[in-house]
Amino acid sequence: MSTGEDGAVAVITALFMVVLLGITAIVVDVGMIYAERFELQNGADAAALAIAQDCAVGNCSNAGATATRLAGKNSHDGVSAATAIIAGNSVTVRASTATPDGGTAIQHWFAPILGINSTTVEAVAKASWGSPSKASVFPFTAPRCMFDSAPTDIELWITSTSTCTGAGGKTLPGAFGWLDEDEKKSCRASVDVDQIIGGEPGKSGPQNCDIDGKVILLPVYESASGQGNNVSYVIDGFAAFKVSAHSWPSEQRSEPGCVHCTGIKGTFITLVSLADLQSFGVEELGGESLNAFFVALSL
User: Fold this and answer.
1) Spatial separation of the C-alpha atoms in residues 285 and 134, rounded to whole Å
2) DSSP annotation string for 190-219
């Protein structure tokens, strides 16, 4: 092989090496970028959901620290930068690359051959929270004053003979009402806080409705009008109520707080749920904040 041919082979080999190193840069360094973005997205998602959960119960004060902590926990090297911006009922978390030595970009191994020394990677997540304004729920409503006066974490009976003082000092006897079901024996009623809901305070308890041991969304009403089987309720919002027992007229249950009563027993609890809205029958959010809040990623 002549000297000229040797030189040509050397040039071709050098060109192939550049191509080979370029492919290596794509495989290795771009792979690092995708891995970093995946970690940052996990951290941003986790931080946004955690902050939204805190804010739902009125504790937004440590949003920045929560974002930084959770972004770091989801990073392979344990370090990430993060910011949190709260606007209305939503929080936007932006997570970006941070390195233990104080850098803000991924340093590449092979890409510098192509003139790319480092890359800054970011991820954004947005989470929102809210209380139901419309839901398909167990057809049972109680007055707002019963929710307002309920002791914390103590079981109580909501029965047909319970009383509490409502708006304007008015006593509301017969403290619950049956709502008109969507379909007969369906155990469900569609309730919208923007509408007046019809009810049947005198009807017997629904049969075969599985509510014991479950958390239900209990529509609470601000006022009621009419009488007999022609009653209308002005629904104020939805309260989370954990049912421990029920008593319908045919069951003749007797215990403290319930002597041959009709009603449900349980506790008003603070519910901050990441569950699918449909699992609670929630159709729309934006209602008054009582004690039930739903959190979801919106970006």
Assistant:
1) 7
2) EEETTSEEEE-TTSPPPSS---TT-EEEEE
15: burial class by Cβ within 10 Å (0-12, 13-18, 19+)?
exposed
Residue 33, in any domain of the structure = yes
Classify residue 126: in a domain, yes or no.
Answer: no
Residue 273 sits in the same domain as residue 136: yes
> In which domain, by residue range, is 170 found?
132-297
Residue 187 domain flag: yes
Encode the chain (299 residues) as per-residue pLDDT tens digits.
455 555 555 666 666 666 666 666 666 667 777 888 899 999 999 999 999 999 998 898 889 999 999 988 887 777 788 999 999 999 999 999 887 777 777 776 666 766 677 788 899 999 999 999 999 999 989 988 889 988 877 899 988 777 777 666 666 555 678 888 888 778 888 999 988 888 776 566 666 788 999 999 999 988 878 776 678 888 999 999 999 998 887 777 888 888 888 889 999 999 999 878 888 999 999 999 999 999 998 87
CA distance 161 to 201: 11
Instruction: Clarify whether residues 73 and 156 are in a common domain.
Output: no
pTM (2 decimals)?
0.79
Give Cα separations from 149 to 106, 137, 216 (angstroms): 56, 23, 19
- Start-to-end Cα distance in the chain: 63
